[in-house]
TrEMBL record:
PANTHER family: SLR6007 PROTEIN, UNCHARACTERIZED PROTEIN YJGR-RELATED. Residues 456-475 have a biased composition (Basic and acidic residues). InterPro entries: HerA_C, P-loop_NTPase, T4SS_component. Residues 33-504 form the Helicase HerA-like C-terminal domain. Residues 476-485 have a biased composition (Basic residues). It comes from the Bacteria. Pfam families: HerA_C. Residues 456-486 are annotated as: Disordered. This is DUF853 family protein. It comes from Hyunsoonleella aestuarii.
Length: 514
């Protein structure tokens, strides 16, 4: 048996599957494609998460596209976080090309140009279905971790949320949250102190600064209503294909705080609302997070711990997470260790640091009798990758340098006209692209403050009226007394009159003369 035949048996035996699967390409040996040695990813293990890595221009995005298309064809919805803005072409069929035909002939898989059901979503003011969530939906724990708060500050957040729950004050957006922060240490200080204990102005000031930082990254557009229902990510079209939901993130590349805030919110909502799947034969939803380093580079330790926890737990909900980045070292080890599928495109060794990174990357893959992993990593061509997956029993499949199949849809972006046409047919645009500003904590607290101020003014006016009335009464009494003291008794008045005096003196004079 030749080395090629031996290798063929090695690959096909290791890629046997009884259930449904996705064929992503054919294995390569010594730089040549072994036709028919197909690399299959069992749907059963797609919720075990994965990694697509490689240097710029080596084909990561196209591999992501291949996975999304094939999952959609299997009736599995997909969520793509499109940082570079080059995935919307999935909505249109590939125009085809002789090189694509040549590639698929080598692989031994048919090529069928087709478009896929696509929904365009957005976090910002770009065209698309608006994604929003309320602050209340975040809850105190997640909000504290996103803001990277201290234990004392997290305690303040918990108290504020409890106060709002007790008083039925909806916290919908950041305006609401800033209002309750201000109220707790100003107009409502006494109320908070009596019911919940004293809240430090230093803590609320620090929290407010973190909120403002989040606002500067555009989070005020994300927080609010109408909240996005994660069940709308699970739609299937009339042909039984899963929708490919593409979140346009091209305008928030320099705002990783907003990106990570949204991602954690979405994952937390999915985990809390999706039912337990157990050991299902197929996932419910697959998420691809492009340029994943944007999350981890700016993430605090509590935030990374939160991501690690969600990665471990969300698998039971039938959800698979796939991180797309340049180097596996961009992903924390605690997260990397949870990833069952790894698709590693070429790495380039331009510096000593690059060579060191390549050696570390090679250690993430199973040993192989057919490859020197370190050498292969630097010799792979565009659209080729080292693939290590899990079989249906959860065991690693044989490591294979793989020629990846080409996307069936267009490998570029939609024009403005095409995008407008797509959005005009969207049911979700009609559902979510209207701004709702119902009465919430901001308005309710303002009303409460105004009522308190009105009551205070009314009480003050009453006191002033009573004081004025009392003063007037006192003045009247004093005036009366003065008039009484100066009024002469009639008898005295007669006795003191001039006539009376002259009469008395006249009588006395006559008596003396006698």
């Amino acid at each position: 048996m030749s080395k090629t035949e031996e290798f063929f048996n090695h690959i096909t035996e290791g890629n046997k599957t009884k259930g449904d699967f996705i064929p992503i390409g054919a294995a390569m040996l010594d730089g040549e494609t072994v036709t028919g040695a197909h690399i299959k990813i069992p749907l059963k293990t797609m919720n075990r998460h994965g990694l697509i890595a490689g240097a710029t221009g080596t084909g990561k995005t196209k591999s992501l596209q291949v996975f999304a298309e094939n999952l959609s064809d299997k009736g599995i919805p997909v969520l793509l976080m499109d940082i570079k803005g080059d995935l919307s072409g999935i909505a249109k069929p590939s125009p085809g090309h002789p090189k694509i035909d040549e590639r698929h002939e080598k692989i031994g898989l048919p090529f069928e140009p087709k478009n896929f059901p696509v929904e365009i979503l957005t976090l910002s003011e770009q065209d698309g279905v608006r994604l929003r969530a309320t602050v209340s939906e975040f809850g105190p724990v997640l909000l504290s971790r996103i803001l990277d708060l201290t234990e004392a500050q997290s305690g303040v957040i918990a108290v504020l949320f409890q106060y709002c729950d007790d008083n039925k004050l909806p916290i919908l957006d950041l305006k609401d949250f800033k209002k309750i922060l201000h109220y707790a240490t100003n107009e409502g200080k006494q109320e908070f102190t009596e019911a919940y204990g004293r809240i430090s102005t230093a803590s609320t000031g620090a929290i407010l600064r973190k909120i403002i930082e989040l606002e500067q990254q555009g989070a005020d557009l994300f927080f609010g209503e109408t909240s996005f229902d994660t069940q709308d990510l699970l739609r299937i079209d009339e042909d039984g294909r899963g929708y490919i939901n593409i979140i346009r993130l091209t305008d928030i590349q320099d705002r990783p705080k907003l990106f990570s805030t949204f991602m954690l919110s979405l994952l937390a909502e999915i985990y809390s609302t999706f039912p337990e799947q157990g050991d299902s034969d197929r996932p419910e939803l697959i998420m691809f997070i492009d340029e994943a380093h944007l999350i981890f580079n700016e993430a605090s330790k509590p935030l990374i711990n939160q991501i690690e926890s969600i990665v471990k737990l969300i698998r039971s909900k039938g959800v698979g997470l796939y991180f797309v980045t340049q180097n596996p070292t961009d992903v924390p080890e605690a997260v990397l260790g949870q990833l069952g599928l790894k698709v590693q495109h070429a790495l380039r060794a331009f510096t000593a640091k690059d060579r060191k990174a390549i050696k570390l990357t090679a250690q993430n893959y199973p040993d192989s009798d057919y490859y020197n992993t370190t050498d292969v990593l630097t010799s792979l061509g565009i659209g080729e990758a080292l693939v290590s997956a899990l079989d249906e029993k959860g065991r690693p499949t044989p490591l294979a340098a793989t020629m990846m199949r080409a996307p069936m849809s267009r490998m570029d972006v939609l024009t403005d006209l095409e995008l407008g046409e797509l959005l005009s047919k969207s049911k979700l645009v009609k559902k979510y692209n209207r701004t709702v500003d119902r009465e919430s904590a901001y308005e309710m607290l303002n009303e409460k403050i105004e009522k308190a101020e009105a009551e205070e003014a009314k009480e003050q006016a009453k006191k002033e009226r009573e004081a004025l009335k009392k003063a007037e009464s006192k003045h009247k009494t004093t005036s009366t007394r003065r008039r009484s003291s100066t009024r002469m008794n009639p008898i005295v008045k007669v006795l003191t009159s001039a006539t009376f005096i002259r009469s008395v003196f006249g009588i006395l004079t006559k008596v003396m003369k006698k």
